[in-house]
Here is the input.
Amino acid sequence: MAKDPVCDMEVAEATTQHTTTHQGKTYYFCSADCKKAFDLEPDKYADKN
Ligand SMILES: [Zn+2]
Here is the structure.
């Protein structure tokens, strides 16, 4: 399971339709709204590595 970085929900990578790639890393979301929030402010939600 992956974690939705916006709402911290567990997301199944295999089934979610809501994904985005930021700086070479793929992020998974529970909903289109969470993906949209991430896409608007990726640096706010992306892993700080
Ligand atoms: Zn979410």
